[in-house]
Task: inverse folding
């Protein structure tokens, strides 16, 4: 990654705006946010570049200013399980930030991205000035743990087709739109990417997609997937 020696005005403004939207910084006064934004370092990560690896000893907090990233677990055979994805305005790195222990996952840029990084020391200084920051961050962390519990439950109790439909509907809920025929339109992913997001093999995903397409539960349309609104009820 390339680091800028200073924050450009537009990047600083982006960081201040991002801080206002984060649950654990939004209550801070504007003058404090302005000072805190100066403690951030802006990094640029290319698509596919690793921000940090699982077990790294870094403890910094990151905010996505532009682009997106994913948290993944990788095994020795190169298989990947995507734990979560993060878009503009999202934060990550909070677990090591809080306990000072090594990273629990590998973070990879999904596309060319700009990231704001805050050192743990700067964060702790902010907490000393306003302890509510830590309480609000813990609340956000608990929400992420609940999401992780949902993922574990899916891996334990749902088959591949159910996991895939659940993923599609989550995507549609977050960013999808309805076409004129009543199908939910979402971004198209490769079978390998879908396998990583559902904890399945690429071969299994390919088979499931063929079945779902045959049953008219989903369709492929250029760079999009079209998902039936009642997909979950038809499984």
Result:
């Amino acid at each position: 990654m390339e680091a800028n020696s200073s924050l450009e005005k537009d990047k600083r403004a982006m960081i201040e705006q991002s801080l206002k939207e984060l649950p654990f910084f939004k209550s801070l006064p504007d003058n404090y946010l302005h000072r805190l934004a100066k403690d951030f370092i802006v990094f640029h990560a290319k698509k596919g570049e690793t921000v940090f690896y699982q077990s790294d000893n870094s403890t910094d907090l990151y905010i996505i200013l532009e682009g997106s990233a994913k948290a993944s677990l990788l095994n020795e055979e190169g298989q990947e399980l995507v734990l979560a994805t993060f878009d503009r305005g999202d934060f990550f790195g909070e677990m090591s930030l809080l306990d000072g222990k090594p990273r629990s996952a590998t973070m990879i840029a999904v596309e060319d991205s700009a990231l704001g990084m805050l050192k743990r020391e700067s964060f702790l200084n902010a907490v000393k000035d306003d302890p509510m920051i830590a309480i609000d961050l813990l609340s956000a962390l608990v929400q992420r743990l609940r999401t992780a519990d949902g993922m574990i439950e899916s891996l334990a109790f749902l088959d591949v087709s159910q996991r895939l439909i659940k993923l599609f509907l989550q995507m549609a809920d977050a960013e999808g739109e309805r076409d004129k025929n009543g199908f939910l339109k979402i971004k198209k992913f490769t079978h390998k990417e879908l396998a990583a997001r559902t904890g399945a093999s690429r071969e299994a995903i390919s088979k499931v997609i063929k079945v779902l397409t045959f049953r008219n539960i989903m369709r492929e349309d250029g760079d999009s997937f079209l998902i039936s609104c009642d997909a979950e009820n038809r499984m």
Summary: The domain at 2-156 is CATH 2.60.120.10 (Jelly Rolls). The chain has eight helices and 13 strands.
